[in-house]
Known about the structure:
This protein is an alpha/beta fold and 370 residues long. It has helices at residues 3-13, 22-33, 47-56, 73-82, 117-126, 141-154, 168-178, 209-212, 216-232, 320-334, 342-360, and strands at 38-43, 63-69, 90-91, 107-110, 130-133, 158-160, 185-193, 238-244, 257-263, 269-275, 280-287, 290-294, 305-307, 312-313, 366-367.
Amino acid sequence: MNRRTFNTKLSKAIGGVALVSNIPLACAFEASENKKSLGIALVGLGTYSTYELAPSLLETKHCHLAGIVTGTPEKEKIWGEKYKIPKENIYNYNTFDSIINNDSIDIIYVVLPNAMHADFCIRAAKAGKHVICEKPMAVSVAECQAIIDACAKADVKLSVGYRLHSEPHTQEIQRIVKEKEFGKINFVTAEAGYPSYGNPDPNQWRLKKALSGGGALMNMGVYAIQGAIYGAGELPISVTAQEFSTKPDYFNDTDETITAQFEFPSGAVGSIFTSHNAKADRLYASCDKGWYELDTAYTYGPLHGRTSSGSEITFPHKRQQALQMDDFALHITQGTPNKVPGSMGLRDLKIVEAIYQSIAQGGKKITMNL
Ligand code: NAD
């Protein structure tokens, strides 16, 4: 019996007198959540699940691949055999909701096209499962809020797939920023992009607004937004943005290249670049007493960084997604901080919407209250 069904059944059994059940309920929750390794079900077995998440789940210590949800029947057999997934833990999009009855699944990880995130995250929460939602969290602020509300209502934990918060080079930048190692930060620039026409499928969902919610900004742009924020150590208060395209026939439904400028409360300024037409992968900040940078900054690693003091930022390579999923599992079982709460995904969508608003208004400065 999972936590949600346990809760419901217990509440019914005691005639809805929920308060007197607090003590046994807490014990039962503790028992279930102190399990050694939590079971994860991946929803959507595309590129990211196949080449990053599933292999990472062979390296995790606190969670494991327990189930799959796929719309492609051939994948059921291939994945079932490769990862020794029992038949009862294999679902399709129609049977997905019956996952509520499966106690071996603790976390549902939604790895579908962006416009499908909200629906599946909300259904996962209703099934009483903890949720990891891939980035961008959803295609609108309203959808992000609906996911957060559904998880709060079901009393399940929620995280977004921003893997870099568990990554040591990025954490070292966060430490440098927090300790103001190079004095006041004056300027940060974050660039994240890759040429998507390198993908031989011109019908890929990332180029269709109905499925992606937008182009480069929704894809790699959220990494540039993230980089600007943890590179500056504060949230922007305004944004001004521009869009341009050198291949308008190809990028006819979604943005190709976007640049944006942030103002921060300290007086620091920031600049981001994102593109589906150019490779870009860097974070740099200049301060009163020096500078720091990551280059590469957003790939699956190994990342690499330097500072003006001559030091290299370098750590042994580990799969970022394994670190990320273990961090979330520990958050659930041991109450460690949630490094990427749903509120962070929501915050980034507020910035995304402000950027699109600025572009729609010819580059007008949009103030933000994050
Ligand atoms: P993909 O195209 O390789 O896979 C998408 C999966 O969704 C496929 O299994 C496909 O069958 C399934 N799907 C279900 N309905 C679909 C529909 N209507 N149209 C298209 N596909 C449909 O995509 P991906 O690269 O695996 O990306 C999936 C999610 O993961 C996206 O939200 C993406 O932003 C995110 N992602 C995150 C990172 C990261 O670094 N955190 C990296 C890659 C992808």
